[in-house]
Each structure stands twice: as structure tokens, then as C-alpha cells.
């Protein structure tokens, strides 16, 4: 998470990023301009929210004229890998999936073989996984297991 996402749009675009996700908490006053600039640089805009932020805070960014294309529900506090998945965040995922059937919904934090089932069945279709993949003896197997869960859900 950065507190000044606007400063990173230009360099990320120049470096060849295809997507740019910013935190709703850090862009309350300028998200419209931010989304516009991200799109102008040829990147796909996404918005992330911390565990303590209500899901309603991102609705205007998905409903607007110039909407974000992905919502990232943080399932740990942003900061570092290896934290415990917060199952109570699945309520946010379910609310989003019900309201936006074809939206990309990402989850990040504590995802792995033991938590992918609840995340996928709540409606998440993009999964960020750190320690469960990089700490596995067979990372490819963990990835295909998670992919299968999402596909089946
Ligand atoms: O950066 C963050 C949290 O700030 C996440 O992307 C985690 O790094 C994911 O790691 P695991 O929870 O999967 O280990």
C-alpha cells in the first residue's frame, strides 16, 4: 500500500505494468482522476480495501462512469506475507459478487490450499498467494489446486 498512488502511475506505466491497483483509503479525494490517468497509460485500474474498511466505500468506484475493473479485498492487514487469512472478509466478497456478477474480485493474504475453498465459493476469482506457493515443495501443484477451486466455484 502506498499513500500517494498518483505519483506511481507514470513510472509504472512506463515500466510496462498492465494493471494498477490503489487503495481506496489513500485516494478518497482523487480517485476519479487517478482512474483516468491509469487508463490513459494503458493500464487496468483496480481498487483495494483494508480489512477495516466497509465494502460500501468501493461501490462508487465500480458504479461510476469511469469504473475500476477489479476490486481487491484484503484478507490480512497490508504489510507482510505469512499472516492468517481473515474468513470474516468473505462477507465483503459475497456482497460484491451478488452486486457485480462479472466483476473481477481479488483476495490477498493467507490464501492457500486450506483457505481457497471459502474464498472461491464466496466469489473471488483472482487469488494472490505468497507463502503457500513459495513455501511449497511443489508450487505448481498448489497453483493448480487453487485454480481448480476457482474454476469449479
Ligand atoms: O503484501 C501482502 C500483504 O501486505 C500480501 O500480498 C502478502 O504478501 C501475501 O502473502 P501470503 O499471505 O500469501 O503469505
UniProtKB/TrEMBL annotation:
It comes from the Eukaryota. It holds the Pfam family Ribul_P_3_epim. The keyword Manganese applies. InterPro entries: Aldolase_TIM (IPR013785), Ribul_P_3_epim-like (IPR000056), RibuloseP-bd_barrel (IPR011060). SUPFAM superfamilies: Ribulose-phoshate binding barrel. It catalyses: D-ribulose 5-phosphate = D-xylulose 5-phosphate. The keyword Disulfide bond does not apply. CDD domains: RPE. Its EC number is 5.1.3.1. Its cofactor is Mn(2+); Fe(2+); Zn(2+). GO terms for molecular function: D-ribulose-phosphate 3-epimerase activity; metal ion binding. Keywords: Carbohydrate metabolism, Iron, Isomerase, Manganese, Metal-binding, Zinc. GO terms for biological process: carbohydrate derivative metabolic process; carbohydrate metabolic process; generation of precursor metabolites and energy; nicotinamide nucleotide metabolic process; purine nucleotide metabolic process. Homodimer. Belongs to the ribulose-phosphate 3-epimerase family. Catalyzes the reversible epimerization of D-ribulose 5-phosphate to D-xylulose 5-phosphate. This is ribulose-phosphate 3-epimerase.
